[in-house]
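Section 5.1 Outputs to date
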Amino acid sequence: MAEEEKIEPGPEEKASENISPPQAIEQNETQIETSDMPAGQADITTSDIQNMETHAHELHKAPGHGWKHYFFEFFMLFLAVFCGFLAENVRETQVEKDREKEYIKTMISDLRDDTISLNNSIKGYKQKGVELDSLIYLLNAPEIKERGAEIYFYGRKANRFSFFTSTDRTIQQMKNSGAFRLIRNDSAASGILAYYSIINEVNVFQNNTNQEAEDVYKIDSRKLFNPLVFETMVNDATHNEVIKPTGNPQLLTFDKSTILNVISTIHYLEGARRNLQYYYVDLKENAVKLMALLKKEYNLEDE
């Protein structure tokens, strides 16, 4: 058989061969786009892209307007507000607990200072008792005229009382700021109120004792002691400390009635001194107990 002649395609047929079908175009575009992507993203297919576009479209759809939709929005808003309220309430409660604990710490420090001051007061009042008893004995002694220096020394110190002063910075701050409400522990609150109630009683008794020492004793002692001798015993040179006079200064009078009147006043001062000492011992015990209570209730054993 004779060889068939090769038929060259016409211009129109060539043009049709150069036109790619739509699927080929999309595939070429996808290949071009994915060729520019990083290696980990180059495997995304056309169907994946279409799914993402569909999902994005669903997200941007306008919400419905049924009662369920409005109820859901109201519930979510209410829940957000309520949760915010709870969070703020928890925060404020924690802040108040922290403030309460700080107040308790400073109060323990105040109580510790009180116990130190009370120890000094108790020691001083024991010595005060010895001095007052010595003065009573000397004024009633047969050798009263030979013991002038000692009588003047104890006589000048008789009305000198060193009163206890509580360290009350914390309780005063709490009263002034209304912060005592932060003490939510009933045992702690009761213990604090009881302790400072005793201090108020002590302050009243101290004021009464001071008035008796300043007014009654001074008036009675003027009839017995020479003020010029006192002047040599207490002055700027002695830094306001009482020193024993030199020699054997004599009393203004040795009248028995006058002396007994002064002894009577000293006796009442001695009774006030004794009561104050008892108050101080009791107050110290309460301070120690309150410190132990506060440390226990607030887990401050190491403070």
